[in-house]
Amino acid sequence: xxYPREIYLDADSEERLISYMDEILNNHYxxxxxxxxxxxxxxxxxxxxxxxxxxxxxxDPRKRGAQIIIPLSAIAIEAVHAxxxxxxxxxxxxxxxxxxxxxxxxxxxxxxxxxxxxxLEEMRIRRPIGxxxxxxTKFGTMIGKSGYERIVKTAVRVVGEEEQExxxxxxxxxxxxxxxxxxxxxxxxxxxxxxxxxxxEEHSDSPYNVMALERxxxxxxxxxxxxxxxxxxxxxxxxxxxxxSASTFGTTGSEGGRQVENTQAGLExxxxxxxxxxxxxxxxxxxxxxxxxxxxxxxxxxxxxARALMSVRYNWHADLRRPYRTGVYFPVEHRxxxxxxxxxxxxxxxxxxxxxxxxxxxxxxxxxxxxRVSRLSGYGPNEPIFxxxxxxxxxxxxxxxxxxxxxxxxxYSNEQGSLIYSQQRTGVNETVLGMPQMGTPGTATSDLAxxxxxxxxxxxxxxxxxxxxxxxxxxxxxxxxQFGPRRIGYFDNVEGGDKVRKFLEMPLELVSTGLLIRIRTxxxxxxxxxxxxxxxxxxxxxxxxxxGLLQLAQPLGDQQLMQTILVKGLYAxxxxxxxxxxxxxxxxxxxxxxxxxEEMMNGxxxxxxGQPAQPxxxxxxxxxxxGTGTIPSMDxxxxxxxxxxxxxxxxxxxxx
Length: 656
Description:
19 helices
């Protein structure tokens, strides 16, 4: 479907809107400088790039001193991030669906498979989710955005003897993008995206992609494409082309996301010499666009340098939600930003790096022997030195050796002590890294206890990631319902597609609030692989349970009781087999399970002698005598119930 319609404001309203956005952006860029500086410093500490000792411009007085940086933060970050991503994407299942209403139980697996296909295969959500997770692990905060995109490109084909142009839709559907903390815009006085006065983000893209978005309807005609179209906005027609490659985010040049990205590019030695990009901001805010005195939720794409509106639309979400979701690595009370490993390790990395350099420099000096020669000994400055050389001097003290320092064993223990403090703060130790324990190894029981205690902190952090991902999945589901999936043919060509279509046709408030089907991210309890393992353990227990009931009921001689147990056992066996097959992703389950048995036990069978149909088994079933039509006769099971020529225990063991 196309983008929501544009709002074209009158000259007075447009000027009021631009002035308001300039004011709030000026205030925010003034208050966010310290946080941007922190992110740049943490990124440098993670990269751990040592100074170039050969650089003639270097001001470091220790020209030959140790310059190594111990990448303490990087060691912990990479271990935690790999663990998070493996736990989240180690299996093919990302989404777990649970029906709240019994009417939707048959649609659970169909909706689950649809979302897994849409997220993992179509949207390829693993990469942006990984970016958000990694930034949270580094800096403490993850920010994601679920939206909609429609990209149209023009193709040319030869038809007969003529060339014809036609448009091709190369992308159409819900999206998810990780938003860098340095690019996210929200006043520091706000604590929640939903309740903030305004929020948004900085964008940078190539002119080609901006042009494709304009042709697709994302931006107003004339945003970057020059032309004489009558419907093009004359304000924007020729302004933005002059701002390509010029940063326009902040008030004094490169600020925010561009500044952090330039720092990262410098660390990687990949800084572009000719950055062919266009910068603009996207803002979600409330503003009186028509002079009615009532603020309305709008979405604005704004080029600050040119003071040009690239697009203005009403908030198109039915619940007026903003598309941003935030999460933390480790929370800070009453703040929406969290603490990451770079902050946790900030002082320890500097301390251990300093101690390590001192130890290396001290060892270098301690191992550096020099020769002291008296001026009257007769030896010059170019005297060769080699093993076995004989020195003829007047005094034995004329030639002597001396060293510049001593080796101090305590320096290593001091460094290890600082490392222990770092491990206590971050929770990443040799056990998490899969390394052998330092010192005397403990017993297997003690190691297991250490692992269990260490997992408590990881489980707490991972739960924060799970809640963030669950919110994102629900937003994506709402966007799919509003704008449609990326492949509309899924409904007609994939098994269960009709059930998914029926679910998406329900009112938005029933879907987004989880009143019909509860959508979550698959955790350890919802994962299909673990579910299969659980069923392998549960199936023998079910068998033993019903056999035990038959053994206990047999001495009572109550045929009605034993018939009830057997009928219930038949139903339980059929239902258990259905869930086992679904856990193993077996197709056409209804062709394998005795579906007629389920229908007989949930439905009705014809009454005797033309009487009305009687229920087989269910709520309110009559417990009258055998043969009344309430409970089917179980005479064929008598040999098993009565022992079949064996003892009671042997008879019970023959029932399977």
